[in-house]
Amino acid sequence: MPVNSTLAYFSDLSFRTAFVIYVIALLFFIAYYIRQKSAVDAKEELGAQQKALVSVGADSADAAPGESTSDVDADGKDNGKNRRRRGEDAPVTQEDVEKREKRADTFGTWGEMILYVGIAVHIASVFLRGLSAGRFPWGNMYEYISIFCAIALAVAAVVLRNREYRVFWPFILTGVLILMFYGGTALYSESAPVVPALQSFWFPIHVSTVVIGASIFLISGFASLLYLIRMGQPMGKEKGIMGAIAKPLPSAKKLDTVAYRTAIWAFPLFTLGIVLGAIWAEAAWGRFWGWDPKETVSFVTWILYAGYLHARATSGWKNQMAAWINIVAFATNIFNLFFINIVVSGLHSYAGLN
Questions:
Q1: Residue 95 has pLDDT above 70, yes or no
Q2: pTM (2 decimals)?
Q3: Inter-CA distances, 47 with 91, 234, 277, 349, Å
Protein backbone atom coordinates (compact mmCIF):
# COMPACT_ATOMS: atom_id res chain seq x y z
CA MET A 1 0.00 0.00 0.00
CA PRO A 2 1.51 3.40 -0.97
CA VAL A 3 2.22 5.87 1.82
CA ASN A 4 0.07 8.99 2.05
CA SER A 5 2.75 11.67 2.24
CA THR A 6 0.27 14.37 3.29
CA LEU A 7 -0.91 12.42 6.33
CA ALA A 8 2.69 11.48 7.13
CA TYR A 9 3.67 15.17 7.03
CA PHE A 10 0.86 16.18 9.38
CA SER A 11 1.77 13.29 11.69
CA ASP A 12 5.34 14.56 11.99
CA LEU A 13 4.09 18.12 12.41
CA SER A 14 1.73 17.00 15.18
CA PHE A 15 4.56 15.17 16.93
CA ARG A 16 6.75 18.28 16.91
CA THR A 17 3.82 20.44 17.99
CA ALA A 18 3.06 18.11 20.89
CA PHE A 19 6.71 18.30 21.95
CA VAL A 20 6.58 22.11 22.06
CA ILE A 21 3.29 22.04 23.98
CA TYR A 22 4.79 19.63 26.51
CA VAL A 23 7.74 21.99 26.99
CA ILE A 24 5.34 24.86 27.73
CA ALA A 25 3.36 22.66 30.13
CA LEU A 26 6.62 21.68 31.85
CA LEU A 27 7.48 25.34 32.43
CA PHE A 28 4.08 25.92 34.04
CA PHE A 29 4.48 22.85 36.24
CA ILE A 30 7.96 23.95 37.31
CA ALA A 31 6.46 27.31 38.28
CA TYR A 32 3.72 25.45 40.13
CA TYR A 33 6.32 23.34 41.96
CA ILE A 34 8.23 26.43 43.07
CA ARG A 35 5.04 28.20 44.18
CA GLN A 36 3.90 25.10 46.03
CA LYS A 37 7.20 24.99 47.89
CA SER A 38 6.68 28.62 48.85
CA ALA A 39 3.20 27.76 50.19
CA VAL A 40 4.62 24.88 52.24
CA ASP A 41 7.31 27.19 53.64
CA ALA A 42 4.62 29.68 54.64
CA LYS A 43 2.58 26.95 56.36
CA GLU A 44 5.61 25.84 58.34
CA GLU A 45 6.44 29.40 59.34
CA LEU A 46 2.85 30.02 60.40
CA GLY A 47 2.89 26.86 62.50
CA ALA A 48 6.17 27.93 64.13
CA GLN A 49 4.69 31.35 64.93
CA GLN A 50 1.63 29.79 66.53
CA LYS A 51 3.79 27.53 68.71
CA ALA A 52 5.89 30.54 69.73
CA LEU A 53 2.75 32.46 70.71
CA VAL A 54 1.56 29.58 72.86
CA SER A 55 4.96 29.48 74.56
CA VAL A 56 4.94 33.25 75.10
CA GLY A 57 1.44 33.06 76.51
CA ALA A 58 2.58 30.47 79.03
CA ASP A 59 5.54 32.63 80.06
CA SER A 60 3.23 35.62 80.48
CA ALA A 61 0.99 33.66 82.81
CA ASP A 62 3.99 32.88 85.06
CA ALA A 63 5.25 36.48 85.17
CA ALA A 64 4.54 38.90 88.02
CA PRO A 65 1.73 41.48 87.55
CA GLY A 66 2.91 44.35 85.36
CA GLU A 67 6.12 42.55 84.41
CA SER A 68 7.01 42.49 80.71
CA THR A 69 8.20 39.08 79.51
CA SER A 70 9.23 40.02 75.96
CA ASP A 71 8.39 42.20 73.02
CA VAL A 72 4.81 40.95 73.20
CA ASP A 73 1.60 42.88 73.62
CA ALA A 74 -0.77 42.32 76.50
CA ASP A 75 -2.88 40.00 74.34
CA GLY A 76 0.09 37.70 73.71
CA LYS A 77 0.81 38.87 70.15
CA ASP A 78 4.17 40.07 68.91
CA ASN A 79 3.32 43.44 67.40
CA GLY A 80 4.83 44.83 64.22
CA LYS A 81 6.61 47.61 66.13
CA ASN A 82 8.62 45.14 68.17
CA ARG A 83 9.42 43.09 65.03
CA ARG A 84 10.63 46.17 63.17
CA ARG A 85 12.84 47.07 66.14
CA ARG A 86 14.45 43.62 65.91
CA GLY A 87 14.80 43.86 62.13
CA GLU A 88 12.45 40.90 61.48
CA ASP A 89 9.98 40.42 58.66
CA ALA A 90 6.26 40.78 59.20
CA PRO A 91 4.58 37.61 60.51
CA VAL A 92 3.00 35.16 58.08
CA THR A 93 -0.77 35.00 58.25
CA GLN A 94 -3.29 32.40 57.12
CA GLU A 95 -4.23 34.82 54.36
CA ASP A 96 -0.63 34.76 53.10
CA VAL A 97 -0.67 30.96 52.99
CA GLU A 98 -3.95 30.89 51.07
CA LYS A 99 -2.67 33.52 48.64
CA ARG A 100 0.46 31.47 47.88
CA GLU A 101 -1.59 28.31 47.42
CA LYS A 102 -3.93 30.14 45.04
CA ARG A 103 -0.99 31.36 42.95
CA ALA A 104 0.39 27.83 42.81
CA ASP A 105 -3.01 26.46 41.76
CA THR A 106 -3.18 28.98 38.93
CA PHE A 107 0.07 27.69 37.44
CA GLY A 108 -0.96 24.08 38.07
CA THR A 109 -4.35 24.52 36.40
CA TRP A 110 -2.82 26.17 33.34
CA GLY A 111 -0.18 23.46 33.18
CA GLU A 112 -2.84 20.73 33.20
CA MET A 113 -4.93 22.39 30.48
CA ILE A 114 -1.89 22.83 28.24
CA LEU A 115 -0.85 19.24 28.94
CA TYR A 116 -4.26 17.89 27.89
CA VAL A 117 -3.99 19.78 24.60
CA GLY A 118 -0.53 18.30 24.07
CA ILE A 119 -1.77 14.76 24.72
CA ALA A 120 -4.61 15.23 22.20
CA VAL A 121 -2.19 16.51 19.55
CA HIS A 122 0.23 13.68 20.34
CA ILE A 123 -2.46 11.01 19.98
CA ALA A 124 -3.50 12.63 16.68
CA SER A 125 0.11 12.25 15.54
CA VAL A 126 0.01 8.52 16.29
CA PHE A 127 -3.27 8.01 14.40
CA LEU A 128 -2.09 10.04 11.40
CA ARG A 129 1.10 7.98 11.20
CA GLY A 130 -0.95 4.78 11.12
CA LEU A 131 -3.35 6.13 8.51
CA SER A 132 -0.51 7.34 6.33
CA ALA A 133 0.95 3.84 6.02
CA GLY A 134 -2.27 1.86 6.39
CA ARG A 135 -1.02 -0.14 9.38
CA PHE A 136 -0.72 -0.02 13.16
CA PRO A 137 1.66 2.83 14.04
CA TRP A 138 4.31 1.06 16.07
CA GLY A 139 6.51 -0.62 13.51
CA ASN A 140 9.85 1.02 14.39
CA MET A 141 11.62 2.64 17.32
CA TYR A 142 10.41 6.16 16.54
CA GLU A 143 6.78 5.07 16.45
CA TYR A 144 7.12 2.84 19.51
CA ILE A 145 8.63 5.65 21.59
CA SER A 146 5.94 8.05 20.39
CA ILE A 147 3.04 5.82 21.39
CA PHE A 148 4.86 4.79 24.58
CA CYS A 149 5.06 8.44 25.68
CA ALA A 150 1.50 9.23 24.56
CA ILE A 151 0.03 6.34 26.56
CA ALA A 152 2.18 7.12 29.61
CA LEU A 153 0.97 10.73 29.68
CA ALA A 154 -2.67 9.79 28.99
CA VAL A 155 -2.68 7.26 31.85
CA ALA A 156 -0.84 9.67 34.15
CA ALA A 157 -3.43 12.36 33.40
CA VAL A 158 -6.05 10.01 34.87
CA VAL A 159 -4.02 8.58 37.75
CA LEU A 160 -2.56 11.95 38.84
CA ARG A 161 -5.70 14.05 38.45
CA ASN A 162 -5.82 14.98 42.17
CA ARG A 163 -4.27 18.31 43.06
CA GLU A 164 -1.69 16.84 45.45
CA TYR A 165 -0.22 14.73 42.63
CA ARG A 166 0.53 17.68 40.33
CA VAL A 167 4.05 17.62 41.72
CA PHE A 168 4.68 14.48 39.64
CA TRP A 169 4.47 16.35 36.35
CA PRO A 170 7.84 18.13 36.29
CA PHE A 171 9.55 14.75 36.67
CA ILE A 172 7.37 12.73 34.29
CA LEU A 173 7.36 15.40 31.59
CA THR A 174 11.14 15.75 31.78
CA GLY A 175 11.55 12.00 31.21
CA VAL A 176 9.01 11.96 28.39
CA LEU A 177 10.58 14.96 26.64
CA ILE A 178 14.00 13.29 26.72
CA LEU A 179 12.53 10.15 25.15
CA MET A 180 10.61 12.12 22.53
CA PHE A 181 13.61 14.25 21.61
CA TYR A 182 15.85 11.21 21.13
CA GLY A 183 13.13 9.27 19.34
CA GLY A 184 12.23 12.18 17.07
CA THR A 185 15.84 12.92 16.08
CA ALA A 186 18.28 10.00 16.27
CA LEU A 187 15.61 7.31 15.82
CA TYR A 188 13.26 9.05 13.41
CA SER A 189 11.95 6.95 10.50
CA GLU A 190 9.77 8.12 7.66
CA SER A 191 6.34 6.58 7.31
CA ALA A 192 6.61 3.31 5.38
CA PRO A 193 5.23 -0.23 5.33
CA VAL A 194 6.62 -2.47 8.05
CA VAL A 195 9.30 -5.02 7.32
CA PRO A 196 8.01 -8.52 6.32
CA ALA A 197 8.79 -9.99 9.74
CA LEU A 198 6.22 -7.66 11.34
CA GLN A 199 3.46 -8.36 8.83
CA SER A 200 1.65 -10.72 11.16
CA PHE A 201 -1.68 -11.03 12.88
CA TRP A 202 0.17 -11.03 16.21
CA PHE A 203 2.04 -7.80 15.56
CA PRO A 204 -0.58 -5.31 16.82
CA ILE A 205 -1.74 -7.59 19.65
CA HIS A 206 1.69 -8.32 21.08
CA VAL A 207 3.15 -4.84 20.76
CA SER A 208 0.07 -3.01 22.04
CA THR A 209 -0.08 -5.02 25.29
CA VAL A 210 3.65 -4.62 25.90
CA VAL A 211 3.68 -0.88 25.22
CA ILE A 212 0.67 -0.19 27.46
CA GLY A 213 2.16 -2.16 30.33
CA ALA A 214 5.61 -0.59 29.91
CA SER A 215 4.19 2.94 29.72
CA ILE A 216 2.29 2.50 32.99
CA PHE A 217 5.49 1.21 34.57
CA LEU A 218 7.00 4.62 33.79
CA ILE A 219 4.56 6.23 36.24
CA SER A 220 5.30 3.56 38.83
CA GLY A 221 9.06 4.05 38.44
CA PHE A 222 8.89 7.81 38.96
CA ALA A 223 6.58 7.34 41.95
CA SER A 224 9.13 5.01 43.58
CA LEU A 225 11.92 7.50 42.87
CA LEU A 226 9.95 10.33 44.52
CA TYR A 227 9.09 7.98 47.39
CA LEU A 228 12.79 7.40 48.09
CA ILE A 229 13.43 11.15 47.96
CA ARG A 230 10.63 11.73 50.45
CA MET A 231 11.90 8.96 52.75
CA GLY A 232 15.31 10.62 52.78
CA GLN A 233 13.68 13.98 53.51
CA PRO A 234 10.80 13.47 55.98
CA MET A 235 8.02 16.05 55.98
CA GLY A 236 8.94 19.06 58.11
CA LYS A 237 12.59 17.99 58.36
CA GLU A 238 13.80 18.75 54.83
CA LYS A 239 17.36 20.01 54.49
CA GLY A 240 19.59 21.17 51.65
CA ILE A 241 18.94 20.91 47.93
CA MET A 242 17.20 17.54 48.17
CA GLY A 243 15.05 18.95 50.95
CA ALA A 244 13.97 21.82 48.70
CA ILE A 245 13.04 19.29 46.00
CA ALA A 246 11.16 17.09 48.47
CA LYS A 247 9.23 19.82 50.28
CA PRO A 248 6.24 20.04 47.85
CA LEU A 249 5.90 16.25 47.64
CA PRO A 250 3.03 14.44 49.37
CA SER A 251 3.66 11.90 52.11
CA ALA A 252 5.85 8.85 51.48
CA LYS A 253 2.82 6.61 52.00
CA LYS A 254 0.87 8.27 49.18
CA LEU A 255 3.84 8.12 46.81
CA ASP A 256 4.39 4.44 47.59
CA THR A 257 0.69 3.75 47.03
CA VAL A 258 0.81 5.31 43.54
CA ALA A 259 3.87 3.23 42.66
CA TYR A 260 2.31 0.00 43.89
CA ARG A 261 -1.13 0.45 42.35
CA THR A 262 0.16 1.42 38.92
CA ALA A 263 2.55 -1.55 38.98
CA ILE A 264 -0.39 -3.84 39.80
CA TRP A 265 -2.21 -2.54 36.70
CA ALA A 266 0.84 -2.77 34.45
CA PHE A 267 2.17 -6.18 35.46
CA PRO A 268 -0.68 -8.32 34.03
CA LEU A 269 -0.52 -6.41 30.72
CA PHE A 270 3.24 -6.80 30.55
CA THR A 271 2.92 -10.50 31.35
CA LEU A 272 0.27 -10.94 28.66
CA GLY A 273 2.53 -9.17 26.18
CA ILE A 274 5.37 -11.62 26.87
CA VAL A 275 3.03 -14.60 26.54
CA LEU A 276 1.63 -13.30 23.25
CA GLY A 277 5.17 -12.69 22.06
CA ALA A 278 6.00 -16.32 22.76
CA ILE A 279 2.96 -17.46 20.78
CA TRP A 280 4.02 -15.21 17.89
CA ALA A 281 7.56 -16.63 18.11
CA GLU A 282 6.21 -20.15 17.78
CA ALA A 283 4.23 -19.15 14.68
CA ALA A 284 7.14 -17.27 13.10
CA TRP A 285 10.21 -19.24 14.18
CA GLY A 286 8.83 -22.59 15.28
CA ARG A 287 9.61 -22.22 19.00
CA PHE A 288 7.99 -20.43 21.92
CA TRP A 289 11.24 -19.35 23.57
CA GLY A 290 14.81 -19.26 22.36
CA TRP A 291 16.65 -16.99 24.83
CA ASP A 292 17.13 -14.33 22.20
CA PRO A 293 18.72 -11.21 23.84
CA LYS A 294 15.40 -9.33 23.88
CA GLU A 295 13.52 -12.35 25.22
CA THR A 296 16.13 -12.82 27.93
CA VAL A 297 16.11 -9.19 29.11
CA SER A 298 12.30 -9.12 28.94
CA PHE A 299 12.22 -12.15 31.21
CA VAL A 300 14.68 -10.50 33.62
CA THR A 301 12.48 -7.39 33.64
CA TRP A 302 9.41 -9.52 34.37
CA ILE A 303 11.24 -11.23 37.26
CA LEU A 304 12.22 -7.87 38.72
CA TYR A 305 8.67 -6.52 38.58
CA ALA A 306 7.34 -9.74 40.10
CA GLY A 307 9.96 -9.34 42.82
CA TYR A 308 8.87 -5.77 43.44
CA LEU A 309 5.21 -6.71 43.83
CA HIS A 310 6.13 -9.61 46.11
CA ALA A 311 8.44 -7.45 48.23
CA ARG A 312 5.89 -4.64 48.44
CA ALA A 313 3.13 -7.05 49.54
CA THR A 314 5.31 -8.90 52.07
CA SER A 315 5.34 -7.39 55.54
CA GLY A 316 8.90 -8.53 56.25
CA TRP A 317 10.33 -6.34 53.50
CA LYS A 318 11.03 -2.65 53.89
CA ASN A 319 9.25 -0.54 51.31
CA GLN A 320 12.52 1.26 50.51
CA MET A 321 14.03 -2.00 49.27
CA ALA A 322 10.93 -2.72 47.21
CA ALA A 323 11.11 0.78 45.70
CA TRP A 324 14.72 0.18 44.64
CA ILE A 325 13.69 -3.05 42.92
CA ASN A 326 10.97 -1.14 41.06
CA ILE A 327 13.46 1.47 39.86
CA VAL A 328 15.95 -1.18 38.74
CA ALA A 329 13.13 -2.98 36.88
CA PHE A 330 12.19 0.19 35.02
CA ALA A 331 15.84 0.90 34.18
CA THR A 332 16.09 -2.65 32.79
CA ASN A 333 12.98 -2.01 30.71
CA ILE A 334 14.55 1.12 29.20
CA PHE A 335 17.81 -0.78 28.61
CA ASN A 336 15.83 -3.44 26.78
CA LEU A 337 14.11 -0.82 24.64
CA PHE A 338 17.23 0.99 23.49
CA PHE A 339 20.38 -1.09 23.91
CA ILE A 340 18.94 -4.49 23.01
CA ASN A 341 16.92 -3.20 20.06
CA ILE A 342 19.62 -0.99 18.59
CA VAL A 343 23.02 -2.31 19.64
CA VAL A 344 22.71 -6.04 20.25
CA SER A 345 22.24 -8.32 17.25
CA GLY A 346 19.34 -10.74 17.51
CA LEU A 347 16.05 -11.86 16.05
CA HIS A 348 14.45 -8.64 17.27
CA SER A 349 16.97 -6.33 15.63
CA TYR A 350 14.42 -5.47 12.93
CA ALA A 351 12.61 -3.45 15.61
CA GLY A 352 15.38 -0.84 15.46
CA LEU A 353 16.09 1.68 12.75
CA ASN A 354 14.25 0.97 9.53
A1: yes
A2: 0.87
A3: 11, 17, 57, 59
